[in-house]
## 1
Amino acid sequence: MADNVTIITVARRAQVSRQTVSNVLNTPHLVREETRERVRRAIEELGYRANQAARQVRTGRSQTLAVRIEPTRDGINSLVLDRFLHGLTVAAASVGYRVMLYAAADDDAEVATYADLLAAYDLDAFVLTDTHHGDIRTSWLAERGVPFVTFGRPWGAPESHPWVDVDGAAGTAAATRRLLDIGHERIGFLGWPPGNAVGDDRRAGWASTVGPEFADLSRFTADDVAEGEAAARDLLSIPDAPTALVCASDSLAAGAFAATRGTGVAVIGFDDTPVAGVLGLTSVAQPLTEAAARCMDLLTGVLDGGITPEPVLLQPTLVIRESA
Amino acid sequence: MADNVTIITVARRAQVSRQTVSNVLNTPHLVREETRERVRRAIEELGYRANQAARQVRTGRSQTLAVRIEPTRDGINSLVLDRFLHGLTVAAASVGYRVMLYAAADDDAEVATYADLLAAYDLDAFVLTDTHHGDIRTSWLAERGVPFVTFGRPWGAPESHPWVDVDGAAGTAAATRRLLDIGHERIGFLGWPPGNAVGDDRRAGWASTVGPEFADLSRFTADDVAEGEAAARDLLSIPDAPTALVCASDSLAAGAFAATRGTGVAVIGFDDTPVAGVLGLTSVAQPLTEAAARCMDLLTGVLDGGITPEPVLLQPTLVIRESA
DNA sequence: TGCGATGATTGGATCGTTCAAGTTGTGTGA
DNA sequence: TCACACAACTTGAACGATCCAATCATCGCA
């Protein structure tokens, strides 16, 4: 469509120079009000939009964030990323940024693409998800001074960077309290094998709420429905078996749900995925839109202010359904 | 990190002019082999990556596709987009394109942002998902000559554009045949209210396989688990009730599954979402990675060759689980 | 030997924007 | 009256690439 509307077209129409138009857009206080209005009108009438690529060539800033899109990992939980991405796109757009996707098979491959992405696209920042123990990505970026935010705490890492996370322990604690409130006294926990930071955190929320005397009411297994079911059966077959289960994920909860059908044992899952809705599972919900917005807030702090903002820890909420 | 490696740095290192370096990258056949190798070595040694923004300013092409990211709509099915996005990002990267996200509340809002996106970012193409009857988006883009591909047929639209879709009717037909094969004779269908093109298509696959005499073995309802359960109960309470159900979505299938528990009635869902995995539902799976790759193929046809490629209709597969 | 064709390489102009350094005009204070 | 500060605006250069036309060799052929 011969998009010939450049800053010069606008300048001619408003009878000013290129630079004045540029000033109206970027540093309006330098321009007299009357002139500013005239330029604004010309922009409006011509439907002018600043060419981001040209701006980027000159300034070296792309107004672009990069986010890795994961292949579906374990099925159920990838839905979390989907909602986070949507929130991030909206939040970014509202402050003039855009979101670009990249794919990588694993962390090593991801680090290998950083250099390419940065050199070719002048990315302003990265948003990392799923941080974990010994994450090589954060140190690579930090060493090179590349701005980034993580959705997930810097588990065990000494160096600190801006991050947003949801308090998983608080989530499982709330789930446990809910079960206590509705009369359960022996509450078990179904989680992932120790060593996974997120999983350990979720277990800790349960453990601190029930107290140390119930430590043996927990089982660990891979994040899989069938394994969850088996572990739940095992846990329910012991003497003084629990009458309620808190689970580290909706996958495990779905398994537990199958194992407890008809027994009246209560089950609570984590992440409030569609599976929870379908099964009628009470589940801990992460405020993903809010998390995305906060990531963007932190990033604007880093990018515009040059400050290192304080991390943000958000509280999850419990979505109550029939299962507990 | 003063990323000062530009085309000139490379040129100096290889003792050639800027233009020769550019030629090595874009039109290598114009450069003598010996020179080409020398330049390639210099590029390698310096870790040079062409600056996309600068290229874009000159050529007007951004090597960027835009895809809308949806808020979670009805819960279960949004997972489809997630996997499609991943496939598209990978396919795009392999041919030098990147994927940018944008959000829009509805089709009108989406059309309103097109002009902005195009002018500001020189997008090369759009990938649209969820096409439907009377889609205003395709006509807007087609009128202005903006390249695009849809994942979804141009339902009922006269004008034709490149598209990729999965044969929903073939999917429900395969599901129906599967049920016939394992001995069922009265097979019902649970779908969405007529008027939704995708839904009508899925119904047609069932209808043509069972034959017209079974037309009253179908029920329509919103895409919701509870409504699906109610509709299934209704269908199963009639005289000569069906012994198996084909459903237009996993949401409906999840409802049907709840309604039929313990009755031995078989159920097949659609989209092979995690819910199907959890419930053990047999479900029709769309080849999303393949679909994304084909979208990219069509786009390169449009963008590089200027041709209007033939549409692609992919076949879904049936993932067999315990429910049928 | 001279000339045109072809292949390989080069230098200037350009894309649309912002930065940096100018130019103009007006008002203030000594 | 003159110097000076300051606000408002303009002009030239630059960002890093590609397009285009020009140059320089090389070679075959009359």
Note: The CA atoms of residues 71 and 103 of chain A lie 8 Å apart.
## 2
Amino acid sequence: MPRKTAEAPRAAERILTTAGELFYREGARAIGVDEIVAKAGATKPSLYRAFGSKDQLIARYLQDQAEQFWAYFDAAVEPHAGDPKAQLLAFFDVLTERTTRKGYRGCGLSNAVVEYPEPSHPGRQVAVDHKADLRKRLRDLTRAMDARKPKKLADGLLLLIEGAYITSQLFGSDGPAGAAKSAAEALIEAHTRQAPDPNPSAA
Amino acid sequence: MPRKTAEAPRAAERILTTAGELFYREGARAIGVDEIVAKAGATKPSLYRAFGSKDQLIARYLQDQAEQFWAYFDAAVEPHAGDPKAQLLAFFDVLTERTTRKGYRGCGLSNAVVEYPEPSHPGRQVAVDHKADLRKRLRDLTRAMDARKPKKLADGLLLLIEGAYITSQLFGSDGPAGAAKSAAEALIEAHTRQAPDPNPSAA
DNA sequence: AATTTTCCGTACCGGTCGGTCACATGAACG
DNA sequence: CGTTCATGTGACCGACCGGTACGGAAAATT
């Protein structure tokens, strides 16, 4: 057995990327630490030295997921700076593109909240914080487009987004996720149209 | 061989209800068979004689979840027979009531799909079938209300429903789920208004 | 009462779970 | 050279995982 003394990628890094793929594809609860280190070409002590516990590794994976989310969110939004409605719709475009890809497994952060209902789980907290950030970001955008009820519009859009994530797992590429953008358009239209208010409830 | 129908609480029955509560609250993957039988006051052989395997027990639990769903769906819809728009909104009322309850854990069927991505899992199949039924039911209603694009409207509503389920877990009782009904109203309005079509894409 | 049929519990299986230990190895750097 | 730091080795842990062989209790049937 020749020692292959691997070069660049440190063990911790290999473990993190491997764990990330497995957690996302199969679910964090379904994957054991033994499988992670085996597929990463590493060993358990390396995992525990670098991350402390499986739960912390999950939290770290979810932080990366949140970062990736903002990366593609910002990328979608950036070309339309100053036009919040166009920004929102551009995001729904990339959302549609992602959620209708075959084998898409939804949002890793939302999935983690389903897998770990205990409020104390470190991964759950990462996910909850991220979704609060997203809600706030959507509110900023709906306020900037002078929606009549920015909070309510933002929440409606968030429902569509989360719905797209999970229905993509339920129905595959021909699911309701494909209707997310047009629904978003209708919601935005309803909240910005000058005509009579179609939804006279309180915000 | 007349019916057995003794009114005694059979072990299998106790196991099923106990497992149902645990699966729903904690997630199926988080619960072991030992915990189920212990809390049900039964033993493992009773579980395996009655249900064959843990996966089949999960499938059975999900069938019950689907039944319960249709029970409250039909109950909400029944008083407004003949008025599909009122039926839909009545369902969104009970949905809101449920999803804004403290400690609500979302839809057991959607949660199961997140926990079990493998298409072959018997529980997943129950969940996927049920959601296909729901999609069809929504389409029937949107068609009955003469929506311009019944499929697209139904899919938009389904996104809101699923979004409400999971955001209730993410945000608790003050989450976006409270905005589901008004968003549904806006979507319905957009698809049934006589004025210009706000969403000229294909169904 | 005796027997068949239905139901259920004791005890146990091999495997895997997350996690830890002491120690060896090897490259990097001064 | 020797030290430091990161990593691998391999054994080990107790708890728990899903699953089962087998035999006893309890009804229903005769």
Note: Chain B touches chain A through 53 residues (CB under 8 Å).
